[in-house]
Amino acid sequence: MEDYNKIIESLGIKYLKSNNIKVSTPFTLKDYEETENAILFLKKGIIRFGKDQDLLKEGNAVFIPANRLTPLSFGEINEKSTQLNLEEFGFKQSEYFRSADSSDVSNVVADFTMVVFETKVFDTVNFFTTLDIPAFSLENSAVNNSIYDIVKETQEERSGNQRVIKLKTELLVIEVIRHILERRLFVEQMATNSTYFKDPRLIKLFKYIKDNLGGELTNKALSDVADVSEDYVGQYFKTLTGINPQDYIEYQRMEYAVKLLRTTKMSIRDIGKNCGYKDTAYFCRRFKMMYGIPAGKMRKRETLMNV
User: Fold this and answer.
1) How far is CA 138 from the centre of its chain?
2) pLDDT attached to residue 102
3) Residue 106's pLDDT is what?
4) Alpha helices, DSSP H, located in 183-279
5) DSSP assignment of 117-134
6) Three-state secondary structure string covering 10-36
7) How many CB atoms are located within 10 Å of the residue 107 CB?
8) Interval 108-167: pLDDT, tens
9) Any bridge partners for residue 79, and if so which?
10) 242, 250 in Cβ contact below 8 A?
């Protein structure tokens, strides 16, 4: 239990966005993915999730870890139902989604609330992404109550609501972790994650990489930070994290690129440079390979929340 308390204490938790959404027409979103964690709470109707299209019960939530590609279906689906990828959905979103206060939705096939939030170990590593777990359902009243409180605070202009939203989001994350631990879900993955806290050199590496994404992050530089040999640093990093350091670095660079695309007006060229790519064409190729769409379209792409 001590290691899990350390995990919780180390987490940087940040509320990003939320909304109440009604779905007007049945369809399948083949490749839903957020760069941060998302929870969908189903109030009414039908939602199926994951490659096996598991049914989400009314009154329950589904947790989707950051960067976990998760097919989502809304309403009764048959062979003739529409299937969209995320890029297509961005152009047709208004045909399917309405905000909860819309009065022009006569036949609602799904009515849900969604909350998106960031959860990072020492503000560097996506915690739930490192677990490498699939989306899973949460039959948990404490989680539901936290979601309700967060959305209520966002809708009411009351003094201190930003502080309350922050606290409620932290509580939501703790309740999700408690749900995992108490039901002994993903036991092996959780145990592996506790290794982050058994070697402070790894945390130093995470911080160094985060602070130097635009620089030269060679194995030699990493070996100096971790005080291990250049020949061993790759094996050392992979043993503790399950991923080799250069793959991890590219993932962090691409995640930062997405953040810059969504929050700034920087050019693609400047974003690439800020993320450590001297060659813009190479940056664009790698970005499309990772996300399936060009960087420019990522900037324009709508998400499930923009209704």
Assistant:
1) 17
2) 55
3) 63
4) 187-193, 200-211, 219-226, 230-241, 245-263, 268-274
5) EEEEETTTEEHHHHHT--
6) HEEEEEEEEEEEEECCCEEEEEECCCC
7) 9
8) 999 999 999 999 887 777 889 888 899 999 999 999 999 999 999 999 888 999 999 999
9) none
10) no
Buried b (16+ CB within 10 A) or exposed e, 32-42: bbbbbbbbbbb
* Choice between 305 and 48, residue whose per-residue pLDDT is larger: 48
| Tokens coding 99 | 């905000």
- Distance, in Å, from the CA atom of 191 to the CA atom of 152, rounded to the nearest integer, reads 35
Q: In one letter, which amino acid is 253? A: R
In Å, what is the CA distance from 279 to each residue of 107, 126, 216, 276?
A: 50, 27, 14, 9
First to last CA, the chain: 41
Q: What is the pTM of this model?
A: 0.80
CB 28 within 8 A of CB 81: yes
Amino acid code (one letter) for 82: T
Q: Which residues contact 102 (CB under 8 A, 6 or more apart)?
A: 22
